[in-house]
Amino acid sequence: MTGTFFDTIIICTMTGLALILTGAWQSDLSGAAMTTYAFATGLNAQTIGPMLVSIGLMFFAFTTILGWNYYGERCMVFLFGTKAVLPYKIVFIGLIASGAFLHLDLIWIIADIVNGLMAIPNLIGLVALRHVVVEETKQYFAARYQYSEAEAQVQ
């Protein structure tokens, strides 16, 4: 939880403010180059800014890889059992290694497809459990209505 807070609130806010306050968002740069320019301009240091962004990006990428590896491994154990962990790790390491030599646009396309495919089991679960959700919602509102009527009688 603290990692998510730190990444989302602290790092993203700091980066967003650097981009806005330095005017880097109006430049022709994009991605890491824009962020590097913003920090170099904002810190008034042409070496510390890019170094800070590079180190931050390295740690962010590494922790993201660790997080997705653990998340995927737990999902494989849940769906297919512990025997599926080794093949998952082999495929995962292969994909990490392929990121070193594939074109960046292709990597983003693969990442988008895989993230989209993760929605399929969730959507199947939502459709399969829709009756349970409707029933639980009815029970919740019925209990809430009974509670508010009892409270009104007390007053």
TrEMBL record:
The keyword Transcription does not apply. It comes from the Bacteria. Keywords: Cell membrane, Membrane, Transmembrane, Transmembrane helix, Transport. It holds the Pfam family Na_Ala_symp. GO terms for molecular function: amino acid:sodium symporter activity. GO terms for cellular component: plasma membrane. The keyword Membrane applies. Belongs to the alanine or glycine:cation symporter (AGCS) (TC 2.A.25) family. This is Alanine or glycine:cation symporter, AGCS family protein.
